[in-house]
Each structure stands twice: as structure tokens, then as C-alpha cells.
Design brief:
single chain, alpha/beta, TIM Barrel, two-stranded antiparallel ribbon
């Protein structure tokens, strides 16, 4: 991919209307495949690769870039990459992008750099906007439920963030069902309806379905976006022949080798057989399965190469 000169987005990027889904009962349309910045876009990653991946994504209709304050590594550097991308390539297309960020997990030392206090959420978003070189985010999430902070404090901070013009919409991620119900009612009554819920959902991890979260979102007009749709590579052919030295499982931080059981291997081999009958890869079949679930708006995919993203988009 030629990255020299001024970036000009592909004029046919919106030709396929079926690539977009309405987010709950809102006016927002999201691509069925969205680009996540959790890994591969941090300070340790080649910037030109990040440019190539985001160019390809936008050229193929992916308008939603999903970030968080502590994405990297190191923390904050995925948002810094987004800031460089805005300056170098995407400033003319800002109004075509749907950019999200989050706060809730650890970001800086001390009592105000974690969880769900008003101070943390407000300060974190201000930092995120500076790193990304933008005036507002389209969507701001509470990244996890805080059992110690009064839920009204967290939710009122989200309301005020919208009223201050620093976010257009709000979402929550990793909240249990009962606090989700409280959030839906509180935000609705304060005229800042909950746009979307972000949860871990894939063919192996189905907690949002089993716990009733996906049903609740669908019944109340809340969108749902799935993260870790490939179970961090378990739902691909990555581990069919052992643990590659450069794989996430080899580092044992986010993905433990104990998950590589005979039962898992048998499951993936069967999935591979069924996917091939449909002319799909394991990953494409796994992504397509999520999009077939009622109430799902989009799946978040990461990408370490343009080719990987290109293959995953074919799930639609």
C-alpha cells in the first residue's frame, strides 16, 4: 500500500449499504465490523503499519474506531497514534468517523486513576481528547462497573460529559445485568439515553447471552458491540498445530496455554470443517456467528496486518 502523499479515501467506501446496522433505537449506524485499537496500535508498534490498516479500514467502510485511555502498550499510546492519524490523514474525514474511548481500568497511579469516580472519568476523557487531537469523542464508555463508587456518581458524570459537549453519546462496558438496568433507567431519565453496551461475546464465551444482557439491550433499544470476537485467536487456525512463539498465548499474559485442551482442539477442528463447507475461514465463520445473534450491532476486530483485516471483513 502506497502511503506517500496526501491520503484520499476511496470514493466507493459507502457503496454497500448492507455493511451498516442501526445501533439500537438511535440514529447511529455502525459498520458491522469495527476496528479495535486494543493491541497493534501502541507505541511499540510500527506507525506506518497502523496507517496502512486504518486506511484500508476506512476505504472499506469501517467508520468506527474503538479506543480506550489505557490501550497501547504503553498506556495512552494507542490514542496518541490516533492523534497522529488525525493530523496526517483523517482530519478532513472527522465527521465521517465514529471515534470512541473509555475509562474505568487502571491508567495512572494513585486513587484517582482507576474505576468509576467522577474525577477519574472527567480527567481521563480530557487527557484522551488531548492525545487524539480532537475536540470530542462520538462515544464515551464507562469501561467497567465500579462496586464501590455510587452508581449515580458514575452515571451523572456520563450525563455531564455529554452536556459539556465532550461526547455525543455514552456507553457502558463490562457491567453486570442489574447495574445495567439501573444505568438504562438513570440515563434515559436524564435525557442521555444509553447508546450501546460493549461486552465479550464469541462462540466460546457467551456470558452476555447467558446472563440476559444481550436480551435486555435488544428489548430496551440499546446497541451491542462484541469485543474479543475471536477469543484472542482461539477461534482461528492460529493454535491448531501448537503455540507459535510470536503468539499471544506464548506470552501467557492475556491468553493462558491451559485453554489449549483436547476438547478445544476438537471443537476448532469441527468448526474448521463446517466453515470450509461454506467457503469461510474459522475466523470468518466465528465473526458471522456473532452478527447473526439478535441484538448485535457490530463486532470489534483487531488487526496486525492489512491482510488480516481484509480477510475478517469478508465475514459480512
Amino acid at each position: 500500500m502506497d502511503l506517500k502523499g496526501i491520503y484520499m479515501a476511496d470514493e466507493h467506501r459507502y457503496d454497500d449499504d448492507s455493511f451498516y446496522s442501526r445501533c439500537g433505537k438511535s440514529g447511529v449506524m455502525l459498520p458491522k465490523v469495527s476496528l479495535g485499537f486494543w493491541h497493534n496500535f501502541g507505541g511499540v508498534d510500527p506507525y506506518e503499519r497502523s496507517r496502512a490498516i486504518t486506511h484500508y479500514a476506512f476505504d472499506h467502510g469501517i467508520t468506527h474506531f474503538d479506543l480506550a485511555n489505557n490501550y497501547g502498550p504503553p498506556y495512552g499510546t494507542a490514542e496518541e497514534t490516533m492523534g497522529r492519524l488525525m493530523d496526517d490523514d483523517f482530519r478532513p474525514y472527522r465527521d465521517e468517523l465514529f471515534i470512541s474511548s473509555k475509562a474505568g481500568f487502571d491508567m495512572w497511579p494513585g486513587p484517582y486513576g482507576n474505576w468509576g469516580s467522577r474525577k477519574y472519568l472527567m480527567a481521563s476523557l480530557d487527557q484522551s481528547l488531548k492525545r487524539m487531537h480532537i475536540d470530542y469523542v462520538d462515544l464515551f464508555y464507562s469501561h467497567r462497573f465500579d462496586p464501590e463508587t455510587p452508581v449515580e456518581e458514575t452515571l451523572q458524570a456520563l450525563v455531564d460529559i455529554v452536556r459539556m459537549g465532550k461526547a455525543l453519546y455514552v456507553g457502558i462496558s463490562n457491567w453486570p445485568l442489574e447495574p445495567l438496568k439501573v444505568a438504562e433507567q438513570y440515563l434515559r431519565e436524564h435525557d442521555v439515553p444509553l447508546l450501546i453496551y460493549q461486552g465479550r461475546l464469541n462462540m466460546i464465551d457467551r456470558e452476555p447471552m447467558e446472563e440476559g444482557i444481550l436480551d435486555f439491550c435488544r428489548e430496551h433499544g440499546i446497541g451491542f458491540i462484541a469485543f474479543s470476537p475471536l477469543a484472542q485467536g482461539l477461534l482461528t487456525d492460529r493454535y491448531l498445530n501448537g503455540i507459535p512463539a510470536d503468539s499471544r498465548m506464548a506470552h501467557e499474559k492475556f491468553l493462558k496455554s491451559e485453554r489449549l485442551t483436547p476438547e478445544y482442539l476438537n471443537y476448532i477442528l469441527n468448526l474448521k470443517t463446517e466453515a470450509e463447507k461454506q467457503g469461510k475461514t474459522i475466523a470468518q465463520a466465528a465473526l458471522a456467528w456473532i452478527l447473526q445473534q439478535q441484538g448485535v450491532t457490530s463486532v470489534l476486530v483487531g488487526a496486525s496486518s492489512v491482510n488480516q483485516l481484509a480477510m475478517n471483513i469478508k465475514c459480512v
